[in-house]
Amino acid sequence: MITQLPQHNQTLLIEGLISNDGIEFAELMERFREIAPSSTIQIMDGSKILGYDHILFAVLNALKAKQNGRMICDDLSLEILVYASAQRQISNSVEMLGVKGDVTQLVLVAVSKDGAELERLRESIPQIPTLDLDSSFLNYWSREKLDRLRRIFGISDAELRSIGLQESSEKELLEKLVIERMALLTLSA
Fold first, then answer.
1. 125 and 36 in contact (C-beta within 8 Å)?
2. Could you give all domains of the chain from N- to C-terminal order, each with its CATH number?
3. CA atoms within a 13 Å half-sphere pointing along the CA-CB vector of 154
4. Please, are residues 58 and 83 in contact by the beta-carbon 8 Å criterion?
5. By 3-state DSSP, what share of the chain in percent is helix, strand and coil, each rounded to 5?
6. Which terminus of the chain is less hemmed in, N or C, by CB atoms within 10 Å?
7. How many Cβ atoms are within 10 Å of 111's Cβ, its own excluded?
């Protein structure tokens, strides 16, 4: 998905990737940076991402922090990771959402003023033998996934009940709580 962020004069690419043979993170990042040298690129463990809104709000918060000179990190790609993890510490963010060799679901996030560069980046993915372009896991929900994400983000039953809007699913409530935690990082920066 490529989205315009006119308030920041940027374009955002969010794509799900499936690794069918493990990945070498540094090698993959180097390849992506060669294809899109003027873009900010981040790759995360997709099994720990709630969906597109989770990433969109992380990127928007990171860009706003940069615009206001209130970044937690010196690097925008790490800032995106910090917001996506809702963790203040970079090491905790990397531990939580960082890509390890056995990860099969990845989320590619790229931000650039050059939308054509992002399109080239997206088009290059099918040429990488170990990766498939597949975002379906971002929309997939199961009880197991919800429970795992609640543990990862430390969300209790009491928190879910406290905002328990009757028309909202548990998935929507979980997303709201994680996005709220991202917003709290902005306030404490």
1. no
2. 2-188 (3.30.2380.10)
3. 5
4. yes
5. 55, 15, 30
6. N
7. 23
Query: How many other C-beta atoms can be found within 10 angstroms of the C-beta atom of residue 164?
Result: 10
Distance (Å) of CA 106 to CA 43, 62, 119, 159:
7, 20, 18, 28
**The two structure tokens encoding residue 129:** 């033998």
- Helix, strand or coil for residue 186? helix
Tokens of 146: 């919800």
What DSSP designation does 22 have?
Answer: -
Mean pLDDT (10-residue bins), the chain, 189 residues: 94 94 85 96 95 94 93 94 93 91 91 96 92 91 88 86 69 84 74
Q: How open is the CA angle 29-35-41, to the nearest 5 degrees?
A: 45
Report CA 20 to chain centroid distance, whole Å. Answer: 20
Q: What residues have CB less than 8 Å from 26, skipping those under 6 apart?
A: none
Threshold 0.85, pTM exceeds: yes
Q: At which residue do the structure tokens 């989770």 appear?
A: 54
